[in-house]
Write a structure and sequence with these properties.
Blueprint lengths: L1 H25 L2 H29 L5 H28 L2 E2 L3 E2 L14 E2 L2 E2 H19 L9 H24 L3 H5 L7 H19 L15 H20 L7 H29 L4 H15 L8 H26 L7 H19 L16 H33 L6 H6 L1 H6 L8
Antiparallel strand pairs: 1-2, 3-4
Helix pairs in contact: 2-3, 2-4, 2-8, 3-4, 3-5, 4-5, 4-7, 5-7, 5-13, 7-12, 7-13, 8-9, 8-10, 9-10, 9-11, 10-11, 10-12, 11-12, 12-13
């Protein structure tokens, strides 16, 4: 009898463990921990990495304004995302175009809600950081001349009406994902989107006073180099985290991200060295970002040799776009958001259609692995993103202009510098 009682006690003692074990199978603590870390890495990319990268390239009199506009973009996009942005991007699909409002203000999402093997709240936060950095990237095209108030209104409208629908198309159950477009971490959603928006905004704003007639030296290449290093570090969360699991594909994405960035940095540096006889640190930093941009859509689909080719082309293409193409076309993209993010993002999306390898991710095959149709799908996704972003960004610009009474600062403020004219502060003490 005593032995029987002990046996029953043993059985009942295992019940809570079994229930807990069942939860562990659904909620993977390793995946969750990795995506929390990845979220923190991507978060750091905007108010730290990008602020330093862009701030260092801006002129000394606009350094703080560039920091401020980057940080306020992060703050605004964070609030937009948790209030209505997430549901527009990832809510139940409305005809493949945009998400429904089921999750407005994160309604229906609790601490026990899961997205795959991770808490939905972690997924919400991870995707939030992508929205934040995408709109902040647009800023690179218009520093030195845009009103702070206009930037705030533009950010609110652009995240809502441009970023969220495109995120839904690709990742939220929309038409582009259903078509089979491959975009692992944001070639179309982030980089093409931001690059095209930046180009449109810079064309509407017009050139900076003195552009092409006077030297516009960066305030601190040291800050830019540090920003590039932080972006590189954070990008491992950006790309490897997009697998949403701590597994072999995440490890491969990590590897190819680093390889492409290193290859592009050297390609840009040597191209510059040959053409202008000087290997600049700004060129090296820009090459790093070009390689990171290009590998982003492909990171979970390509192997290491492919990342060498992707990085090599990205470095050369980025250098050509900034050093040659911009001068030929005559547009004033202040910090080359279009030249780096737009052009290298397009290359990365095309490269995914070429190099996608089913040995990395099953079912993802590019032209070089017997599926020429994938390249055609990638081209459709690129063109669609360009058209939608261009048209809706233009609408957002004119709505912003109507609300704020204009996009551009007064001439006196632009000449004086926006740090002092708008913020009453100075980033550098000029003696």
């Amino acid at each position: 009898m005593k032995r029987k009682a002990l046996t029953l006690a043993s059985i009942f003692s295992l019940i809570p463990f079994s229930l807990a074990f069942g939860q562990e199978e659904a909620l993977n603590s390793g995946d969750t921990a990795w995506i929390i870390v990845s979220t923190a890495l991507v978060m750091m990319m905007t108010p730290a990495g990008l602020a330093l990268f862009y701030g260092g390239m801006s002129r000394y009199k606009n350094l703080l304004n560039t920091f401020g506009m980057t940080i306020v973009a992060y703050c605004l996009a964070s609030l937009i995302w948790v209030c209505w942005g997430y549901t527009l991007a990832f809510g139940p699909s409305q005809g493949g175009v945009v998400g429904g409002l089921d999750n407005i203000f994160l309604a229906g999402i609790g601490v026990d809600s899961l997205s795959g093997s991770i808490p939905t709240l972690v997924f919400v936060l991870f995707q939030m950081t992508f929205a934040c950095i995408t709109v902040a990237l647009v800023l690179g095209s218009v520093v030195d001349r845009m009103k702070f108030s206009a930037w705030i209104v533009f950010t609110l409208l652009w995240v809502t009406f441009v970023y969220c629908p495109i995120a839904h198309w690709v990742w939220g159950g929309g038409w582009m994902g259903d078509m089979g477009a491959l975009d692992f971490a944001g070639g179309a959603v982030v980089h093409i989107n931001a690059g095209i928006a930046g180009l449109i905004l810079s064309l509407v704003l017009g050139k900076r006073i003195g552009y092409g007639k006077e030297a516009m030296f960066p305030s601190s290449i040291t800050l830019t180099a540090l920003g590039a290093a932080l972006l590189w570090f954070g990008w491992f969360g950006f790309n490897a985290g997009s697998q949403l699991a701590a597994d072999g594909v995440a490890a491969s994405a990590f590897l190819v991200t680093n390889t492409s960035a290193a290859t592009a940095a050297l390609a840009w540096m040597f191209a510059e060295w040959v053409v202008s006889k000087r290997p600049t640190i700004l060129g090296l930093a820009s090459g790093i970002v070009a390689g990171l941009v290009a590998i982003t859509p492909a990171a979970g689909f390509v192997n290491m040799p492919a990342s060498l080719a992707i990085g090599l082309v990205a470095g050369l293409l980025g250098y050509y776009s900034v050093a040659v193409l911009k001068g030929k076309l005559g547009y004033d993209d202040s910090l080359d958001a279009f030249g780096v993010h737009g052009m290298c993002g397009i290359w990365g999306a095309l490269a995914t259609g070429l190099f996608a390898n089913p040995a990395i991710t099953a079912g993802a095959s590019g032209l070089f692995y017997g599926n020429p149709n994938q390249l055609w799908i990638q081209i459709i996704s690129i063109v669609s993103t360009i058209i939608y972003t261009g048209i809706v960004t233009l609408i957002v610009i004119y709505v912003t202009k109507a609300i704020t009474g204009g996009l551009r600062v007064e001439e006196d403020a632009e000449v004086q510098g926006l740090d002092n004219a708008i913020h009453g502060e100075r980033g550098f003490e000029i003696v």
